[in-house]
Design a protein that fits this description.
By secondary structure, the protein is an alpha/beta fold. The protein is 41% helix and 21% strand. The longest helix has 15 residues. The structure holds calcium ion. The site of calcium ion (CA) has 5 residues, from loops.
């Protein structure tokens, strides 16, 4: 699977480094921003799966960053874990209804924060943390990479596997070709959007090889969805 991508937004360099070290030890891809403005740029440029967001930041506060992330449909699904200096402040942050998915008070235990990050990933990118996903008679194991349909093992190439995993994480959701390129191929690789069509075609062929209806839906002018 494409590695989970975590963005750390924290103005204190020492804290940023501790978090980066621990998140990278879990094989996550890590981006960092030292203020709210850079955080918003970074989110627009290279969408993370989870944001660990400090409340007190220079320029644009963590609360404002969270509000903007949750206000846009393109970024609403990103999990936001808000950090705050004191637990009393945390109650205030909660009361502001920023839409954050979780709250952790400083000083936090790094192990506890890592557990919260994993919990958010289980929700937003389940296959990246080894969950088994099912859709109708299709089952996909994020850990063993085994895919079955009606109990029969399907042989998928690595790209088709990532494509199916991405679609199975949010059945019914329509993904544009550009979104699939970002999620399945990653930002750093240049591939034409037509490539998406080619791999969707291959995936279709494998999924229907032993019979059963085609679960992939082509949405004209929009992209692809599962179911
Ligand atoms: Ca701070």
């Amino acid at each position: 699977m494409a590695q989970p991508h975590i963005l750390i937004v924290e103005d204190e360099a020492a804290q940023r480094e501790v978090l980066r070290y621990n998140l990278e030890s879990e094989s996550f891809r890590v981006s960092m921003a030292e203020d709210g403005e850079r955080a918003l740029d970074s989110i627009a440029e290279d969408r993370p799966d989870v944001i660990v967001l400090d409340w007190m930041l220079p320029h644009v506060s963590g609360i404002e960053v969270c509000r903007q992330v949750k206000a846009r449909s393109a970024t609403r699904d990103i999990a936001v874990i808000m950090l705050s200096a004191r637990s009393e402040d945390m109650d205030k942050v909660r009361g502001l209804e920023t839409g954050a998915d979780d709250y952790v008070a400083k000083p936090y235990s790094v192990n506890e924060l890592m557990a919260r990050v994993r919990a958010q990933l289980r929700r937003v990118r389940p296959t990246t943390v080894g969950q088994v996903l099912t859709f109708d008679d299709i089952s996909l194991d994020g850990e063993t990479h085994r895919v079955t349909r009606s109990g029969k093992t399907l042989k998928l190439g690595p790209t088709e596997f990532r494509l199916l995993a991405t679609l199975m994480e949010k059945p019914g959701r329509v993904y544009s070709r550009d979104q699939l390129l970002d999620l399945v191929w990653g930002r750093d690789i240049y591939v034409d959007t037509r490539t998406v069509d080619v791999h969707v075609g291959r995936l279709r062929k494998v999924l229907t090889a032993h019979g059963g209806p085609d679960p992939l839906r082509t949405v004209r002018g929009a992209g692809y969805a599962l179911g």
